[in-house]
UniProtKB/TrEMBL annotation:
GO terms for biological process: fatty acid metabolic process. This is AMP-dependent synthetase/ligase domain-containing protein. One of its GO terms (molecular function) is medium-chain fatty acid-CoA ligase activity. PROSITE patterns: AMP_BINDING. PANTHER family: ACYL-COA SYNTHETASE, CARRIER DOMAIN-CONTAINING PROTEIN. It comes from Pelagomonas calceolata. It holds the Pfam family AMP-binding. Residues 39-335 form the AMP-dependent synthetase/ligase domain.
């Protein structure tokens, strides 16, 4: 079954920004998009995606990851970095024929594929050069996403994710937040990192809820959410975004009332920032823990009241343990590692008797 298969087809899934002239991609349109096989590829074909943030990027990533192996890249990276990342890719999907990614692809002989926005609704069309042979619907347990990461040692490496892992990660987050079809998240996170992909694409997808994808982060827009459409109910971002939102307030500014939850990740959330945001907004504020190799790892539930200072909550995906030297270990199907073996995260921490994890430093 495809993610989101149980969602009514008329429900919106992906909005292309606020108050857009283009309608949202509905769940029915998404199913059509995913069933429209990507010609010229098979389940092992690597296809880079170097598009600017937005609904077209999110939907293109879903389509490529369903049929082939998606390699999302920063479209604004230096050409020399993109050339290295494009090695072994059969094509590079871009949203403009000119730019660093197109130049890098041409330099290494990778086909440049321009995604054309669909008229009237979110989504883009593109076809890769190659034979038109129809391939079987690829298995969910094969690698479908490759992400570049510095790793726990600081040395760059590639992490492979399967569709099963992406869907399971989205389900874990959706359960922890109690997402409903009436919910809508706001994404300004880069979609070439695991956090934005799992939290802001797959968790709405599996819960039958929606997301609005904007090109850039604007604290002013966040403060003005009550006057924008669609209605945003939760936000996943990094602590610096939350600090910027608080700093952008004018005297007497009121919080966006529809936002019930702020989910923070990718870095430690300062307690003072969490407490100030909670006191001002009245919304739930969640510090969380994850890494490219496993998204998510730990998070409090959506009713958390910041009453466990320094904790990132209980495990919501993998098993957790602490090694003899105090390093956090994770294990299970969500981990991009042997599911039966413990994976050392490189972080130090402790687990309270009730299972809540507190991070205390780095092991290396």
């Amino acid at each position: 079954m495809l993610p989101g298969a149980a969602a009514p087809g008329s429900l919106p899934f992906a909005h292309d920004g606020f108050d857009s002239a283009r309608g949202p991609c509905t769940f029915a349109a998404l199913r059509t998009l995913l069933h429209d096989d990507l010609r010229g590829v098979d389940a092992s074909t690597r296809v880079a995606i170097a598009m600017q943030n937005g609904a077209d990027l999110a939907l293109s990533l879903l389509r490529v990851a369903h049929w082939a192996v998606a390699v999302p890249l920063d479209p604004n990276a230096a050409v020399v970095e993109l050339r290295v990342a494009l090695a072994g890719c059969a094509g590079c999907v871009v949203d403009a024929a000119a730019g660093p990614a197109a130049s890098a692809a041409a330099a290494v002989g990778t086909a440049v594929v321009v995604a054309v926005p669909k008229a009237g609704e979110a989504g883009a069309t593109f076809h890769l050069p190659g034979p038109d042979a129809v391939v079987a619907d690829p298995a969910a347990n094969r690698p479908c996403l490759l992400l570049r990461t510095s790793g726990t040692t600081g040395r760059p490496k590639i992490v492979a994710k399967t569709r099963q892992q992406l869907v399971a990660g989205g389900e874990a987050i959706a359960r922890s937040l109690a997402l409903r079809p009436s919910d809508c998240c706001l994404n300004f996170m880069p979609l070439h990192h695991i956090g934005g992909i799992v939290s802001n694409i797959y968790s709405p997808l599996v819960s039958g809820s929606a997301a609005v994808y904007v090109k850039t982060f604007s604290p002013t827009d966040v403060l003005n959410l009550d006057n924008l459409s669609p209605r945003v109910t939760w936000i996943y971002c990094v602590p610096s975004h939350l600090q910027a939102i608080l700093a952008a307030r004018t005297p007497g500014a009121t919080p966006p009332r529809a936002v019930r939850l702020y989910r923070s990740g990718a870095a430690a959330l300062p307690a003072a920032v969490a407490e100030e945001l909670r006191a001002w907004s009245g919304a739930v504020v969640l510090p969380t823990y994850s890494m490219t190799e496993c998204m998510p790892i730990a998070s409090p539930r959506g009713s958390y009241e910041l009453d466990r200072a320094g904790s990132v909550g209980p495990a919501i995906g993998p098993e957790l343990a602490i090694s003899e030297r105090g390093e956090v270990l994770i294990r299970g199907p969500l981990v991009s590692h042997d599911a039966k073996e413990w994976f050392a995260t490189g972080d130090l921490g402790r687990i309270d008797p009730d299972g809540w994890l507190t991070l205390t430093g780095r092991a290396k």
